[in-house]
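Hi there,

I know you've been waiting on this one. I reran it after we fixed the sequence typo, so this is the corrected version. Both the input and the resulting structure follow.
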Amino acid sequence: MDINQVLTEYDSMFGVKGLDEIEAFLVEQIDKAYAEPDYYSAVTLLNEIIGFCRDTSQNEKGLKYCEQDLKLMREMGLEGGVEYATSLLNVANAYRAFGKWEDSLALYQQTQAIYQKKLPAGEFNYASLYNNWSLLYQEMQDFDNARIMLEKALEVVYGYPDAVMPIATTHCNLAVTLLHLYQEKQRECQKIPEHEDMSKQAKEIYSQAVRHLKKALEIHERDGGQDMHYSGVLSAMGDALYLDRRYGEAAEYYAKAMKELEKHVGRTEAYDRVAENYAAAVRLSEEASDRQGADQQGTGCSEEEHPSTEHPGVGQSVFVADRQASEEDEEPEAGQGNLVRCRRFYEDYGAPMIHEMFPEYEHRIAVGMVGEGSDCFGFDDEISKDHDYGIGFCMWLLPEDDRQIGEVLQKEYDRLIDEYRQRLINSRGYEADIIELFLKKRRGVFEIHAFYEDLLGTGAIWNVQEDVNKPLRDDVWQRLAEERLATVVNGEVFRDDLGTFTAIREQIRAYYSDEIRGKRMAEKLHEFSQYAQSNYSRMMARKDYVTAKICVAEGMKAAMELCYLLDRVYAPYYKWMRKGMETLGRRSAPPQKIIKILDRISGLELQAEAWENVAYDPVKGNHEDQIMAAFDQIAEELLDEMEWQGLVQRRISMDGQPPFLENYIGDVLERKASAMSKEEYVEKIVALEWKQFDKVENEGGRADCQNNWNTFSIMRKSQYLTWTEELLASFYQDLMEADERGWNLITEKYARMMESTAPEKYAGLEKDLPKRSEERIAIQEEIIKIQVGWMEEFADKYPKMAGNARSIHTSEDTPYNTSYETYLRGELGTYSEETLILYGRFIVSVQQAGKNLAYEIMNQTALLYGYESVKDAEEKL
């Protein structure tokens, strides 16, 4: 049975056929799968019909198919494997929908047990499990356990930085659960009003919910609000504000949610529910406005409006209004940076406010100016003032202090800023609606952990109070964007008596480990070599001046990033990279020469005349081109610095040519290669391949196999677990380099296979593929001959296992079937010269040892699917 074709036909029936016809089709295909017999396809189809019954509320039928699915997988001997766990998860979801909560819970627990046995921690499968498990707990009104599951899911999805929408969705789901918990706590507080701890717990839960919603909103807004789930986050934020009796703000979010819903799905029941909430929020907001005159005389807000916020003894700050601002306060010295002005503003206004209003917390509040903005780097000028610029400062609180005073401290800070601004308007005549000086997002009150988390854009890294002195793991460092790291170590801390905020900051300032630094340096050496030393000259020779200019810009950027790495300083956002170069040189030779060369390059026009009647030479280059000569000067300077630091050993050029920096990648990666285990290489290779496989574009649209991580992972790991570490390291480098230059090795592999499966289409693609020499092709064919023989031998001994794999010979290829031989030919064609040589040696070593590589790979496959061995799988299939 061609299961992919069956599923394609099934998907196409929706919206065209009636539900009865669609169900009948699935039943018919299940019967065919049993008759053939093709039990793997039967399992797939049973999972489909379980979902169909769940969506159409056919509980009794759905339960029957659930039992049938699990029974079949047990009979196939798949019990305990990852595929079995995936079916368990599907059945658990069905049981949840059908109201069999206890049975559903038991299956979620079984699924988790199998994942923990078969999958490493952090695999994306766990995120799906925990998200679905949380839905069960929500239906059971067990919001505490729902919260636990969603926190686990959030930890998993943050291990996949590209999965931005799953991250946003999990933040939102967790926030909604926390709002339910908040309401429970509020009801308990009403029963026992004198229970102060319970009230504090409620406030803490509410604050956490809002933080998760803000994170989800930030992700969606960075995406342009294109995802349909954006409406759900907007509506949830409306709910949060409604619960806090901030009805006017709630109405604004509900209105935005309604607009998004109408745009994506029309005026559905979901739209109507949000519209009802909107109407209620508008009505209550208007009622609150009517009462405002009577309730808020001389206060910032009425007690009724914020009943959950109690700060005895804290009233309106009046000292700011009584203080006379001097000319010096309002008009700082010309040329003075905003960081200096903000420190003075804190000393003159902020510190007295904290001392008078929060004396018991004065020594616990860390204060400074750190984060986004040119002024935090000390790079601000007149042009900087056109946006996101102004007086202010940050205050960082421990979690318990944030719960106690965070909200009221923010209100006092806002009042401080507003009154200062009003004096500027009154004294200078500025118009209030054009002053963009006061940054509430970047300045004000922050909980320490949330501040770092928001700036770095990653999940929980530290427990601020317990783990502050523990070094960050390398896998955490690899998730952090360098420009974000730069934002948390810039600026200045004005006061930090406790030292907690500064301790985290200093831990980050301590910089990358040697291994991570080496990896990043290797990336930038590759980029500099490709853009500045290789592709620029190729583009000039082709007269492709647009791409040549891109190469110049990217080459300059890579050179600057290498300077930062050599100085052990995080590179800032690109628009400040050149400016920041002027501050480098504290640890090594000042990069003034490189700055001057970069400035010279930026002022040069493309050297088209230097390429007239000049043949392209990839080795010698063309030093009549002043840009190319300048880049080679930069290469010499960088190499001198790397050699001085002991990172590389200079190679003497026999022909006097300048150094090609990519040749030194191996030196800087030496520590990395020795530090990675075989298992780590396999995991990283499969992850990189999946990333490329996900981006392959098919003529008929996205293939089903591109949504099947489990099968992909098992198939690829089975192969690589048989390789040597040396071979794995070389191929890993192939993938890294391809990824960095935007080349997809998986797409290349499939294109090469089309030489046999679709020769006419291949003819149109061949010109874009890297050329392979006749000598190389001969080596590949010798390897293929050996491996095809191994597969023939394996198929004779284990026909059932071989029957589940590809056909063996190229002669069996069709447009819809690619043989093992053709697949292998395509894959070998993507290897670098070094990797192919190592692979050939590996094949010879396997042959000399009297082993069969096909057997070794298939044995790994059987183990990963939960069998004891190939023999065990053959007997049970």
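Quick highlight: Confidence is low (pLDDT under 50) at residues 293-335, 428-438, 460-469, 586-590.

Best,
R. S.
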